[in-house]
Write a structure and sequence with these properties.
There is one protein chain. The radius of gyration is 22 Å and the shape is globular. A hairpin with a 2-residue loop joins strand 4 and strand 5. The strands form 3 sheets. A 5-stranded mixed beta sheet has the order 2-1-3-11-6. Strands 8-9-7-10 form a 4-stranded mixed beta sheet. By secondary structure, the protein is α/β, with parallel strands linked by helices. The chain has 18 helices and 11 strands.
């Protein structure tokens, strides 16, 4: 790609990205990084970690091991995406960029990232399904630092009172049967997030993929069966009306009341789960016909942006390699409540904390939202999908009608 065409593509992608966020993010994104003065710049989406945190200590240690000084800045995820695009357009990207995995395809299409082949980053040990979120047109644009995903939390006391064995919940039929038993005891069944945003799509995808549906065919019979499952639960009183507006946080708050048997939520709730006033467990989200459903992956990739001075790449490669080696991954993923992207490290996590075994199983069955070479098509598909879910749950359209409209909308964008 020539310098001119790359700048033109960056400008176009930057405009699209900026249009999707608030004006405050636009105004704060105009400035590129300050002159590093020889230091290596690292941008990450972890503003919650202060300078005295283990995460920042690891970054600085990796810099010391590479013989350089690391200057790190943590940004909100949305702000980071826009800053990364504009910095690339201006030719002053950071040396190492850590971004949410769906953003990789946007930056790659803009020509803002180098490939792992370019910089000889070894990704051979990474789990293929997790690596897929950072791939586009057969090229890999970073190294996964870890993954989170979704599973079903359950209230042990409620299930015991209803005579439900959670180990017997293996498919949609057995899950619905469990919800029916819970309701018969005067309790509530399941809560989740079906809000009209990416969170709603994220939570629907395990059921969508678990039906055998594909994101390239939103109105397939399999897709209709998944949305029908949710609408039937709502009609039968197994799920509350609040799901239409629930975020993943508010649905967790509902589960925390102790009134619900199940909640679909993620690894990021593990610390909160330990604070519940009742005993809980977790099981994978079941696929329609049995076995774990493919759930979408969250988590970040560590990438090396395109630089004017290619001589900096060798040191950047050392920094990325340090951040993603097995021992450091274990520490980082434990801090972030992530499952590691390397099988051997996953085993170490599950051995250290047996409660993570279910999450390791879920991550191994998971897939990236931008996988199947969807890349930057995914956000358009996702918006059409969450719109369909909202329409069907509100009673505006049948699942078939809602998904047919979604397929038409996604194909026209």
């Amino acid at each position: 790609m020539t310098g001119f065409s790359r700048r033109r593509r960056l400008a176009a992608v930057a405009v699209i990205a900026l249009a999707a966020v608030t004006g405050s993010a636009c105004s704060s994104s105009a400035d590129g990084p300050a002159d590093s003065g020889g230091a290596y710049l690292v941008w990450d989406p972890y503003p919650q970690f202060a300078d005295d945190s283990e995460w920042v200590a690891l970054l600085k240690k990796c810099g010391t091991d590479a013989g350089v000084t690391v200057e790190r800045t943590g940004y909100d995820t949305t702000d980071l995406t826009n800053k990364a695009l504009l910095a690339a357009q201006q030719g002053n990207s950071p040396d190492v960029l850590i971004v949410d995995n769906p953003v990789i395809s946007t930056l790659a299409e803009a020509g803002a990232l180098t490939t792992t082949d370019d910089n000889k980053l070894d990704v051979s040990a990474m789990e293929k399904n997790l690596l897929g979120a950072g791939q586009s047109d057969g090229k890999t644009y970073g190294v996964p630092i870890g993954a989170n995903t979704l599973a079903l939390y359950y209230n042990k006391d409620l299930l015991a009172a209803a005579g439900v064995d959670p180990a017997a919940v293996k498919d949609w039929a057995s899950l619905t049967a469990a919800l029916t038993k819970v309701k018969a005891k005067g309790k509530k069944g399941i809560t989740f997030s079906a809000i009209g945003t990416e969170e709603g799509s994220f939570q629907f995808l395990p059921w969508f993929w678990g039906s055998g549906a594909q994101l390239t065919s939103l109105d397939s019979p399999q897709a209709v069966s998944a949305l029908t499952l949710w609408t039937d639960w709502l009609k039968q009183g197994h799920a509350p009306n609040s799901i239409i507006n629930n975020t993943q946080t508010t649905s967790w708050q509902e589960f925390a009341t102790g009134d619900y048997a199940f909640a679909e939520n993620g690894t990021w709730q593990l610390a909160n789960a330990e604070k519940l006033g009742f005993s809980y467990g977790t099981i994978p989200i079941p696929a329609s016909a049995g076995g774990p459903a493919p759930a979408p992956t969250g988590g970040e990739f560590v990438s090396i942006p395109v630089q004017k001075t290619t001589g900096r790449y060798a040191t950047s490669q050392k920094l990325v390699t340090c951040l993603t080696n097995a021992d450091n991954l274990l520490t980082t993923d434990t801090t972030l409540s992530y499952v590691a992207p390397v099988a051997a490290v996953q085993e170490r996590q599950a051995t250290a904390d047996p409660k993570l075994k279910v999450w390791v199983e879920a991550v191994r069955a998971a897939k990236g939202r931008t996988g199947d070479n969807l890349g930057t098509k995914y956000p358009k598909i996702s918006e059409a999908l969450w719109t369909a879910v909202q329409s069907a749950l509100s009673g505006g359209k049948s699942p078939q009608e809602a998904l047919a409209a979604a397929q038409t909308a996604a194909a026209s964008r």
